[in-house]
Amino acid sequence: MDADIILKIAGIGLLTAIVCVILKKSDRDEIATFATLAGLITVAVLVIDMLGGLFDTLKSILSLY
Fold it and tell me: How many structural domains does the chain have?
């Protein structure tokens, strides 16, 4: 696993947390919830892409298809 992916996930989490705090301080709780959800979806897409690469690598190593 590359440190690049870990830094991307940490950066997205930090940015999402900052945006969420700023929006909650300005009484925009609904938008803060959507910003948090957008950050979560972005990280989930990154992780799913990594899992897809892992399965492709395993398939090629084991010569399954």
Answer: 1
